[in-house]
Backbone:
């Protein structure tokens, strides 16, 4: 009888190899030699089969039929053994040619088809490579149940179908009969837990839509998982198509959260709306809102998506992130890290006794500025610190003012803005605390306060638009530091919002001949952030004109790099859409042309993992330049931006960067650490850590600076003890070099970002989704790092605050149906790739059980350790609503 | 009449009435009553803008029940402090030195690390510095021109070291040194050769002792001798003839001989104070072996110990190095090497030093017991170190001002500078100075690069490998005022 396909399905692939290859390798004489050793049983079988072959050629159709049926019977009963060529097939091998020849002579009849079936099976082992005889006879045969001949046969057929399809496609002949067979094969595979095979076949024959009819409740999850993972390795536009199918399937089976994630991945707002419209469960919609909020896009609900006004308001509130501060503080209280930390707690100079510089009796402006940043990063979002928010009723009317004035000139701007970072996401009390700085008579302080307002509002939307209301008036002030503060504040607060009102206010600055270069540069960045990934024509035009208006001298200014970057951000991740603009950029002054080209290319393909683009960028880095062109830095960074999409490409990129380090020119070497920092952001891989540690002692101080900052980036928010130790040693190694020491301090602050509760990784939801605003913020800061001396060590150190766009709590916070925190046990462990695996494999390994809220490290995954609740999101990250399981029994 | 709700910080005022006929200023005054924020400090957000005092309600489109947001505090406005902080970056270079906490490094002018490290070690002697400051620019008649120039160059160099943060290039000094001692100008393959730091040290001190001698002939005013001179009294004894004689001599350093048995400085010094010499014996009428045993008769303020690590190796024609590990302490007691006369003199000061120390220990013990148990260890440590450094600076200032009579030597010495050598022969390798600063911190002066070091690391320079090993140690006397 037909073999039980279930028993063999799991490990079919490996066996396929053995059973197919054996006959092709075995020379015939070996077969003959063995004849003599055959057991009696086998000999009998052989003779029997030979008899059948003879009978088939008998003129009597009755005899023929009996012979064919017997032969079929023999073959079928034998296919159960998969480790070797089934005996009947083996014994029939010498007669394949005879049967084939006889088949040609037969008149059309049922019998002929019957023989075709058998020939099709025999061709499984006999047919020469590329002949596709199995398929040929199958199409000529009876078209009966395809599975009756066993799994191996179906797999072989599937392979031949794909080849045949390609051939016919090129010859442009009909494929109807083929598709019918494909349908059969897909149905068979889908029924027998071989979803990857079915998907593969359909992708080969370019008809994935067929899949929807064949998925069912039991296999759609595995199918979709395979589809989404396969999409990463497909060239466009196939990947979009595949995800589209996955989206349809999820929608069909009401897995709306998954559907939403795919919709977000596709950046298809139509789909997002559809998910909201189709789902009628308010609680699930709330979960959707949390997912949308984490992704950091601006999304307005309308009547269709939530009919009830009150519900809609509640949902919109979640999307607007108004409660994210509360959630974060819940986590902080649970982990007991509310106590503010001072920069000294981070530096831990006492562990370096003797080596740390002698207790400085005089303030160093540079070091105080570093302390300002460290303080801001470490206490980000906690609402309290030891420098800026010290209660003003303490001695001498507020020592907070004192710390502010321990910074010099533009340092005061960063100090005032740091208040925004400390009060991150807490708009109400944040604005109240920043307010007093608006009335200062120092322009730098006002600029800082404006920036601070922007930072506080980062990722938070508010109906009253306080940031816009407060900042709008300052955009056209006389003092350029105030203007920059307001412009950058708007950029951070409204990143991704595509706010028309702001555009109409900012665009004129770009083309104002009187505006200083730095104001223009920051305007371009802010517009880029606000319109990130929108491909907005008008903004693009404005920036292009601004670039064209620059004089040759201005094009050499370090800040000019922000103009192409602003342009690039408009096309972030939009791939081909950039082409028109890229064409225009070819007409720019040659000083900036290539740099602009690289920036646009890298932004447009950021997060796509497009290998061709990586190669293109690598090609640019391979050239040795003489004229001191600047485009290689952005190109190196571009490699990281494109390749960061998936794990495999990421590893390859790290290796390529190592090569660049060895063979590249100095301008490339300076960019490599920054690129490594982006690739492993908030994910301290040991090999990268070692590379950066080595580079942090590089003879070229700019390489060393970039490496030090990158050490901070890869350890951002991890409290990684090894990196912390390295940085501490670097702080004593570089204690004399004020610039490098500043970088070390910044890195130390980053490692302890939010006391270890925050991450800078723009990827979320199991590394599936890439938050565009987060990536835009990171890229902006990293581009600034390409010219450390002029920007971060100069007077534009506040570009470090662009990192705020990428800051997110790396937590799992479970909430009940009223959105109140709910503590449940969860298992947290290393995520395991389960794509294409049969059954219900374990998704995590080496887990520990904690109760929520918990911190998730890079590569960690969580799963509920209780049956009592059902999570409404398939991926346990960020805010997850838990519903009580109605089937749960105590003591179960 | 409209009623709106106003949100202010975390508070919400649910029903605030707006009189549409009055300008918004009136509304702000209403809010002043509620929040205490003066109207001019209020910022009220309406539809993407701020509410102006003279705006028209009708055009603003405020709706019934709308939520308005108000920002503003009655807090005091931050004012810049009248006297802003002074930043290090703004200071002139001389003042930055104080903040940095140690003096500058010296550029290597081509194999001049032996000279640099010698200068750094001697530079750490404040008394020598002050003596040099007093040195007249006019040459004394009994002094030769080159010695005068070298002394003046030393003075200038020390002065420059004190004033700068950035490394100094000792050009002038280097030239004068070569003029005075042509052997340092040896060339090899067109570059200056590496030299023995000990030779440089000795020669420089010798020159200084010549030039810093006061014009009056009295010996006691020889500054260098007062600072570094060690008076030895030796008993020369011939076993064969039983002859015995004694002689006194003054040296600038004690030698630590290194042999198989020597593992510690103490043993090496003992070794170095005993020697055999062959000289004609008047009674025997031929040359005989004499045993010379030396003892210290007068102690210097700065005790220099030289590790005799180099010996002339004929086969390789260079000064080869003994790599043997010889430990040396941070605190050296030379009581054992002193003569009986000196023993007597040292008794009283040593006693008082012991008293003082036990008092301090007792005090500390009390402190510890009185302090609560969870008292941070770090805290007491910090206290201890600050005490220590405070004392040392106090001690130096006292010594600087007063003469010998008030402070008495105790025979106990503290390590203040180490000159180390790394490499296999005296004329190659690298010399580095490790100097304790006035604030108690150790700095490694590797030519132009001063690197802070831990005290633990200083005692690790005792040899036994290819790492830097002590060649010359300079100890400073611990004195008690009496």
Residues:
């Amino acid at each position: 009888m037909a073999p039980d396909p279930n028993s063999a399905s799991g490990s079919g692939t490996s066996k396929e190899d053995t059973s197919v290859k054996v006959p092709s390798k075995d020379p015939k004489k070996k077969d003959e030699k063995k004849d003599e050793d055959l057991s009696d049983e086998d000999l009998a079988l052989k003779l029997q089969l030979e008899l059948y072959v003879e009978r088939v050629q008998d003129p009597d159709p009755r005899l023929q039929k009996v012979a064919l049926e017997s032969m079929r019977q023999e073959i079928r009963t034998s296919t159960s053994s998969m480790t070797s060529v089934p005996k009947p097939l083996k014994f029939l091998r010498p007669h394949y040619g005879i049967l084939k020849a006889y088949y040609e002579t037969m008149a059309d009849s049922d019998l002929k088809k019957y023989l075709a079936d058998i020939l099709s099976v025999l061709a499984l082992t006999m047919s020469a490579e590329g002949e596709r005889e199995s398929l040929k006879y199958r199409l000529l045969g009876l078209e009966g149940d395809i599975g009756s001949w066993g799994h191996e046969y179906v797999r072989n057929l599937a392979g031949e179908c794909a080849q045949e399809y390609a051939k016919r496609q090129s010859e442009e002949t009909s494929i109807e009969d083929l598709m019918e067979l494909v349908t059969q094969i897909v149905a068979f595979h889908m029924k027998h837990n071989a979803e990857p095979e079915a998907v593969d076949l359909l992708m080969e024959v370019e008809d994935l839509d067929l899949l929807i009819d064949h998925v069912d409740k039991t296999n759609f999850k595995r199918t979709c998982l395979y589809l989404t993972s396969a999409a990463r390795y497909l060239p466009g536009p196939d990947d979009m198509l595949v995800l589209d199918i996955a989206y349809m399937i999820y929608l069909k089976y009401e897995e709306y959260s998954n559907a939403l994630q795919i919709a977000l991945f596709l950046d298809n707002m139509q789909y997002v709306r559809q998910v909201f419209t189709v789902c009628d469960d308010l609680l699930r919609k709330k979960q959707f809102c949390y997912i949308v909020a984490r992704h950091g896009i601006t999304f307005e609900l309308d009547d269709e998506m939530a009919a009830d006004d009150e519900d809609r308001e509640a949902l919109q509130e979640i999307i607007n992130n108004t409660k994210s501060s509360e959630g974060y503080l819940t986590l902080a209280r649970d982990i007991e890290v509310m106590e503010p930390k001072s920069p000294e707690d981070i530096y831990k100079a006492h562990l370096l006794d003797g080596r740390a510089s002698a207790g400085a009796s005089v303030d160093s402006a540079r070091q105080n500025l570093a302390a300002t940043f460290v303080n801001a990063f470490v206490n980000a979002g906690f609402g309290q610190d030891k420098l800026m928010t010290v209660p003003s009723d303490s001695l001498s009317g507020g020592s907070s003012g004192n710390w502010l004035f321990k910074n010099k000139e533009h340092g005061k701007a960063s100090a005032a803005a740091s208040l925004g970072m400390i009060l991150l996401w807490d708009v109400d009390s944040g604005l109240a605390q920043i307010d007093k700085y608006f009335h200062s008579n120092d322009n730098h302080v006002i600029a800082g306060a404006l920036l601070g307002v922007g930072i506080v509002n980062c990722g938070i939307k508010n109906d009253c638009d306080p940031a816009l209301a407060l900042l709008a008036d300052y955009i056209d002030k006389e003092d350029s530091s105030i203007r920059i503060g307001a412009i950058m504040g708007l950029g951070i607060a409204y990143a991704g919002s595509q706010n028309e009102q702001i555009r109409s206010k900012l665009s004129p600055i770009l083309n104002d001949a009187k505006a200083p270069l730095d104001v223009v540069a920051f305007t371009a960045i802010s517009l880029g952030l606000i319109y990130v990934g929108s491909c907005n024509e008008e903004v693009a035009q404005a920036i292009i004109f601004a670039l064209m208006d620059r004089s040759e001298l201005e094009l050499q200014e370090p800040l000019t790099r922000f103009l192409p970057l602003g342009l690039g951000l408009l096309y972030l991740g939009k791939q081909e859409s950039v082409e028109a603009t890229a064409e225009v950029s070819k007409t720019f002054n040659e000083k900036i042309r290539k740099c602009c080209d690289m920036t646009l290319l890298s932004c447009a393909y950021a997060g796509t993992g497009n290998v061709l683009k990586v190669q293109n960028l690598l090609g640019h880095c391979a050239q040795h330049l003489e004229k001191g062109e600047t485009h290689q830095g952005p190109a190196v960074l571009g490699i990281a931006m494109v390749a960061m999409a998936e794990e495999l490409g990421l590893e390859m990129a790290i290796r390529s960067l190592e090569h660049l380090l060895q063979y590249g020119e100095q301008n490339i070497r300076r960019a490599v650490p920054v690129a490594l920092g982006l690739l492993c952001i908030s994910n301290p891989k040991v090999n990268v850590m070692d590379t950066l540690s080595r580079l942090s002692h590089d003879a070229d101080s700019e390489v060393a600076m970039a490496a030090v900052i990158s050490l901070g980036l890869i350890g951002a928010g991890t409290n990684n003890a090894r990196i912390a130790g390295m940085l501490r040693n670097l702080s004593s190694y570089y204690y004399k070099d004020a610039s490098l020491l500043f970088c070390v301090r910044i890195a130390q602050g980053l490692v302890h970002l939010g006391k270890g509760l925050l991450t800078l990784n723009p990827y979320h939801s199991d590394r599936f989704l890439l938050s565009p605003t987060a990536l835009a913020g990171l890229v902006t800061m990293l581009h600034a790092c390409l010219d450390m001396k002029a920007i971060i060590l100069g007077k534009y150190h506040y570009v470090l605050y662009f990192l705020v766009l990428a800051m997110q709590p790396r937590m799992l916070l479970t909430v009940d149906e009223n959105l109140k925190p709910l503590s449940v046990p969860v298992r947290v462990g290393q995520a395991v790739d389960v794509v294409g695996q049969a059954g219900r494999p374990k998704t995590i390994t080496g887990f520990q059980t904690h109760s929520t809220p918990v911190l998730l490290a890079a590569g960690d995954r969580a799963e509920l350790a209780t049956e009592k609740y059902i999570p409404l999101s398939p991926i346990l990250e960020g805010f997850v609503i838990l519903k009580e399981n109605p089937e749960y029994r105590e003591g179960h | 009449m409209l009623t709106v709700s106003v949100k202010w910080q975390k508070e919400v005022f649910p029903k605030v009435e707006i009189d549409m006929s009055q300008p918004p200023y009136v509304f702000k005054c209403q809010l002043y009553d509620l929040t205490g924020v003066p109207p001019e400090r209020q910022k009220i957000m309406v539809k993407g803008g701020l509410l102006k005092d003279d705006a028209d309600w009708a055009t603003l489109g405020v709706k019934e029940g709308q939520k308005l947001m108000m920002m503003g505090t009655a807090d005091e406005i931050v004012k810049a402090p009248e006297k802003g902080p002074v930043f290090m970056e703004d200071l002139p270079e001389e003042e930055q030195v104080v903040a940095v906490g140690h003096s500058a490094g010296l550029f290597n002018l081509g194999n001049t690390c032996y000279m640099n490290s010698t200068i750094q070690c001697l530079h750490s002697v404040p008394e020598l510095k002050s003596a040099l400051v007093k040195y007249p620019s006019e040459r004394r008649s009994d002094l030769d021109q080159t010695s005068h120039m070298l002394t003046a160059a030393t003075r200038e160099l020390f002065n420059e070291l004190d004033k700068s943060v950035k490394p100094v290039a000792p050009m002038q000094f280097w030239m004068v040194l070569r003029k005075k001692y042509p052997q340092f100008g040896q060339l090899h393959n067109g570059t200056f050769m590496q030299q023995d730091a000990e030779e440089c040290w000795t020669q420089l001190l010798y020159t200084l002792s010549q030039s810093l001698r006061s014009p009056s002939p009295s010996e006691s005013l020889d500054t260098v001798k007062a600072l570094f001179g060690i008076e030895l009294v030796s008993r020369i004894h011939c076993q064969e003839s039983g002859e015995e004689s004694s002689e006194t001599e003054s040296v600038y350093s004690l030698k630590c001989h290194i042999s198989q048995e020597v593992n510690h400085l103490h043993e090496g010094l003992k070794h170095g104070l005993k020697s055999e010499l062959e000289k004609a014996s008047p009674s025997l009428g031929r040359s005989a072996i004499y045993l010379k045993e030396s003892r210290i008769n007068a102690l210097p303020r700065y005790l220099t110990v030289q590790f005799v690590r180099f010996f002339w190796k004929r086969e390789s024609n260079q000064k080869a190095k003994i790599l043997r590990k010889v430990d040396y302490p941070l605190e050296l007691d030379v009581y054992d090497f002193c003569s009986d006369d000196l023993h007597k003199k040292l008794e009283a000061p040593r006693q008082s030093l012991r008293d003082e120390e036990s008092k301090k220990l007792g005090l500390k013990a009390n402190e510890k017991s009185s302090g609560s148990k969870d008292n941070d260890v770090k805290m007491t440590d910090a206290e201890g170190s600050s005490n220590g450094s405070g004392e040392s600076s106090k001690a130096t200032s006292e010594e600087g001002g007063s003469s010998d009579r008030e402070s008495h030597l105790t025979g106990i010495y503290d390590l203040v500078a180490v000159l180390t050598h790394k490499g296999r022969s005296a004329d190659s390798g690298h010399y580095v100075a490790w100097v304790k600063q006035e604030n108690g911190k150790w700095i490694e002066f590797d030519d132009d690069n001063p690197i802070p070091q831990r005290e633990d690391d200083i005692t690790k320079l005792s040899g036994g490998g290819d790492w830097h090993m002590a060649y010359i140690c300079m100890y400073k006397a611990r004195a008690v005022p009496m």
Confidence is low (pLDDT under 50) at residues 368-405 of chain B.
